[in-house]
Amino acid sequence: MSDSLHIVCPHCVAVNRIPALRLNETPRCGKCHQHLFSAQPLELRSDNFSRHISRNDIPVIVDFWAPWCGPCKMMAPAFEQAAAELEPGVRLAKLDTEAEQAIGAQYSIRSIPTMIVFRGGRELARQPGAMGAADIVNWVRSHI
Ligand SMILES: [Zn+2]
């Protein structure tokens, strides 16, 4: 593992270089000065998706969901809990497949919710179906 990690700011998408040992010290963005981690899944859109997926050195877990999907809504609080537990070594993010259909199609999302683990722009694993917070954390840890 290298001494520093590239972390994409969830607020302004600036790519920050954070010493790996300082990742746990609530780092702030060098550009917008907001916290790089706030225990909240960030919202992905077409204008920030590829940057977060490809420029983060930490794994990025994306919850592909939609507003009309009951199980997705049920899983949302669990996904937030998982974010609180897994950050800052992992970034958790959500993609609304209703608003961003092209991205859902690009990754052949056939059922929602579906979670995908990305690292360095590559898909490492995917899991369809809603899960509780502990299961999400265990599943993520088993793939990173
Ligand atoms: Zn920023």
What would the average pLDDT be, to the nearest integer? 96
Biggest β-sheet: count, sense, barrel? Answer: 5 strands, mixed
Bound molecules: zinc ion
Task: State the shape.
Answer: globular
Question: What is the beta-strand fraction?
Answer: 25-35%
The low-pLDDT segments are: none
Number of helices in the DSSP assignment: 4
Order of helices and strands: EEEHEHEHEEH
Overall radius of gyration: 14 Å
| N-end to C-end Cα span | 13 Å
Helix percentage: 25-40%
Kindly name the structural category.
Answer: alpha/beta
Q: What topology, given as strand order, has the largest sheet?
A: 3-5-4-6-7
* Strand runs, count: 7
Oligomer: single chain
What does this structure look like?
The protein has helices spanning 49-55, 70-86, 101-106, 133-141, and strands at 4-8, 15-19, 42-44, 60-65, 91-96, 114-119, 122-128. Strand 1 (4-8) and strand 2 (15-19) form a beta hairpin. A 5-stranded mixed beta sheet has the order 3-5-4-6-7, with helices on both faces. A two-stranded antiparallel sheet has the order 1-2. Helix 2 packs across helix 4 (133-141). By secondary structure, it is of the alpha/beta class. The chain has 4 helices and 7 strands; from the N terminus they run βββαβαβαββα. Bound molecules: zinc ion (ZN). Residues 9, 11-12, 14, 29, 31-32, 34 line the site of zinc ion.
